[in-house]
Amino acid sequence: MKRWLTYSVPVALGIAVLAFWEWAVTHWQVPRFVLPAPSAIAQSFVDDRAQLAAATWTTFRIVIEAFVLALVTGVALAILFAQSRIVELALYPYAVILQVTPIIAIAPLIVIWVGYEHIDRALLILAWIVAFFPILANTTLGLRSADRNLIDLFRLYGASRWQILWKLQLPGALPYLLGAMKISGGLALIGAVVAEFAAGTGTATGLGWTITEAGNRLHIETMFAALAILSVLGVAIFFLLSALEWALLRHWHESAVSRQE
Amino acid sequence: MTSLLSLHGVSKTFDSGTQAIAALDLEVRTGEFLSLVGPSGCGKSTALRIIAGLIAPTMGNVAWPSGRPEIGFVFQEPTLMPWRNALDNARLPLELKGIARADAEARSRQALARVGLGEFGHAYPRELSGGMKMRVSIARAIAAHPKLLLMDEPFAALDELTRQSLNDDLLKLAREDGITVIFVTHSVYESAYLSDRVVVMTPRPGRVTADIAIAQPADRSVAYRLTPQFTDAAGRISAALGDAMSRAA
Ligand SMILES: Nc1ncnc2c1ncn2[C@@H]1O[C@H](COP(=O)(O)OP(=O)(O)OP(=O)(O)O)[C@@H](O)[C@H]1O
Ligand SMILES: [Mg+2]
Fold it and tell me: What global pTM score does this model have?
């Protein structure tokens, strides 16, 4: 397959669909509050730019904060689990419970606990909860997957536990961690938006709230605009993390090697 | 020859209840090339790990008359770290021992050159063939200048030609550095070619059943594999191994 085809084909399809959409909406006179034309949505980007920019920034900030928090706490707890079986046995079931309970069901409780005046903090906690588990689970698995013979070799040369962790287990867990980060990045975004829906239109000001608000006022084109931004954010997060993965693994990991050739 | 180490009545029973070796007595002399052969599961790997101090024997002990020397270990798989290039892999023992980076690099570069990989320091394991990876593994083992080298079926996964050339290189390295080698193998011919002495073990729980000395010529090569001397040694090892197997059955 020619390289340029991988970009030009989807772009061409996208343009064709947008053109047909524009034409169909005018031709069949679809009401604006059911399906706005792409041009109307574009107009909304211009008209509502201040509000959209502020909402995007709010959501983006929460996603990044939740993601970094999930990364730090997930890796730290995984390291703790890899050092001590007892700690893992004690804590793992609770991590699972936190994970399997639907976030939308926990949201109202969290909002009440931290208070409506700190809604950002509630959103952060909720996005963190969903982003945290894949990092914990995968990193724990990665740390445990170190080659037994290599561990023996480290011990033969008198390596400390810390050296085994730092020089052997953590590098070995990196592919697992990077894979989990791609999942968690997307989950943090979903978590942040879902949490905003669950919190209701209160003091929240992110993209979730923008969608709810615009829906209430039948500003469907603003809903579409916010949706488009969410998709772009999600795709951007995924591509950034994929690029990071490639940069860190390209010399040695099979997953990155095949793409190089 | 002086004694480097001796196992006295060493037994190992794992937590699972499996008794791997029972009352193993074995003396290893300084500078010799000793092969350990025996049926699968008879405790050869376990014995090496006990000698290396990685696991403790359930009973008995390992004595080191003139102190415990620097030990190198080579496994059946190259067990390299895929995220490190050949040079950094070979440097690992020196790094863990806290030797200064520049010094450690010079020494591991030298070790790589000695196994014929002087040009491949920057290559990552995935860029190397199976034989080359095993060479890096050997370079890593000799980088810290061990006096005792423990090898657990190191060439079992390689093709015959690669294996023969690694056999010759290993003999040369061991002789040059005066390294004592304990070499586990399933190949009668390999043990006959390499060893000054072959110890045959019984099926699990393993103990020594035959101790075969081989008078080796200083220079061994392809031609040596065709001499009656070599076939005679191989025949004796093979017979002892067959005997060990049948006694268990
Ligand atoms: N960590 C362990 N826990 C429990 N059992 C073990 C462990 N390591 C080895 N064993 C058992 O001890 C016995 C001897 O194992 P060992 O690996 O020493 O044999 P071996 O002679 O090296 O075999 P092979 O020739 O197949 O490599 C086997 O039955 C094995 O299953
Ligand atoms: Mg073994």
Answer: 0.89
